[in-house]
Amino acid sequence: METNYLPNGMVKKNYRCSLFGHRYIETKKVNNHFSEFECKTCKVQVTNDVRGKKITLTSKLKDINETLFYLNLKKQFLSKFYFRKD
Predict the structure, then answer these.
(1) DSSP E strands: which ranges in 1-86?
(2) 30-54 per-position pLDDT tens digit
(3) H-helix or E-strand containing 78?
(4) Which residues, other chains included, contact 41 with Cβ-Cβ below 8 Å and sequence gap of 6+?
């Protein structure tokens, strides 16, 4: 008698993540505190919140991260070329 707890078609991408957890890859570094991540298996996108926990990436959060990214670029540009400390 063969005991098969998981049938052949049952182990799919979303089941693997629900059983074993997500495997996140950093896709975009917004600034020193915030990053965007994507799961390798189920392709769900998440980002960091203020406390450092991962939350799902909505369109509103994506816009906020994009604005933070461009503000960080502007800050780096200004500090590099205009406010040098020689």
Answers:
(1) 24-29, 35-39, 45-48, 54-56
(2) 998 999 999 998 999 999 988 989 9
(3) helix 59-81
(4) 13, 16, 17, 22, 23
3-state secondary structure of 24: strand
Q: In 3D, which of 14, 63, 60, 64 has the Cα closest to residue 39? A: 14
pLDDT above 90: residue 59: yes
Query: Would you say 44 and 38 are in contact if contact means Cβ atoms under 8 Å apart?
Result: yes
Residues with Cβ < 8 Å from 68, sequence gap 6 or more?
A: 30, 31, 34
Residues recorded for the chain: 86
At residue 43, what are phi and psi to the nearest 5 degrees? 60, 25
Q: Is the pTM of this model over 0.70?
A: yes
* Residue 35, both tokens: 């990053």
